[in-house]
Amino acid sequence: MAPANSGAMYAKDERALCFHGELLYEAKVLDTRPVDQNDRKGPWQYLVHYKGWKNTWDDWVPQDRLRKFTDENRELARNLVQEMSAQRKSTASRVSNAASIKKKAAGSDRLGSSARASEELAPSRGTKRGRDGKEVEGTEKEEDYLRRPAIKLHMPDSLKSILVDDWEKVTKDQKIVALPSKTPVNMFLDDYEDFEKQRRREGSADWDILEEVVAGVREYFNKSLGRLLLYRFERPQWQDMHSRINKGAGELSGKQVADVYGVEHLLRLFVSLPDLIAHTNMDSQAVSRLKEELFKMVSFTSRNIPKYLAEAYEHPGDQYIDSVR
């Protein structure tokens, strides 16, 4: 049912999913209102009731907390619950191990007082220090790094199978993807962005976040392909392509890496993204939203992958193979 108010994305009595903390819950929209009563085209708020919760939990929420009640978003909700459960088990295990180690250390009298004093003065593990023993500015302790919000990106079985086939073709069969790709990463990202924008209101926070995420994935791909995403057998091909891109001559004039390589290599980035994101300084809320956006991108990839895959891998020839050895 379309919203009665032209600016509202959700209608009264509409079934939806709503974020509460880091999880998505089924909810019903009880009422809607513009944030600014004089601006009906601006952002809207929604009074929601969470299914199975007491009415005291009913709350006015901004639009970015709501998601349409689709199969895709319901799967996202299930994945978030599974990841939260896994994180809690992991945290409980670490706490238990730390407590056990501390208990053993407290009960041990094998260390003399001088040894214990020396241990107390030693730098904590994971803290980088200079020659004078002082902490180096800009570094962080291991425990601070481990407390950073983690992200787990669910990969559908269909994409996992493609990744395995890709690995076998390159590393075992000694074949490579023909380049430039007929369906490069930039084409895929443009198609995905166009598809998602049809489901979002122009000028909204969702619209802006989509553009930021697509631009970020594009940048990550351009920067990380040559450093992280290639197999050894693909290196000579990369050196040739990279050189031609830098020279800006011929068919690769003005091109980016994402204009040359295809979705086969983008799938490898999806696998590497959790580790790359772990090295950023995003807070848990930003990580949660990024996880949601990446889930949608991966789901779109899974549904449309036949359109973007290379028709066949090619044998590069004996001279190429000799250059790898």
From TrEMBL:
An annotated GO BP: chromatin remodeling
UniProt entry keywords in alphabetical sequence: Chromatin regulator, DNA damage, DNA repair, Nucleus, Transcription, Transcription regulation
Locations listed in the record: Nucleus
Biased composition regions of type Basic and acidic residues, renumbered to the chain: 129-143
Compositionally biased intervals (Polar residues): 84-99
Pfam families per record: MRG, MSL3_chromo-like
Superkingdom of this protein's organism: Eukaryota
Annotated stretches, region: Disordered: 84-143
Cross-referenced InterPro entries: Chromo-like_dom_sf (IPR016197), Chromo/chromo_shadow_dom (IPR000953), MRG (IPR008676), MRG_C_sf (IPR038217), MRG_dom (IPR026541), MSL3_chromo-like (IPR053820)
Cellular component GO terms held in the UniProt record: NuA4 histone acetyltransferase complex; Rpd3S complex
Annotated Chromo domain residues: 24-84
Entry similarity comment: Belongs to the MRG family.
Its job: Involved in deacetylation of histones, chromatin assembly and chromosome segregation. May act as a transcriptional oscillator, directing histone deacetylases to specific chromosomal domains. Component of the NuA4 histone acetyltransferase complex which is involved in transcriptional activation of selected genes principally by acetylation of nucleosomal histone H4 and H2A. The NuA4 complex is also involved in DNA repair.
Record's subunit section: Component of the NuA4 histone acetyltransferase complex.
Protein name, as recorded: Chromatin modification-related protein EAF3
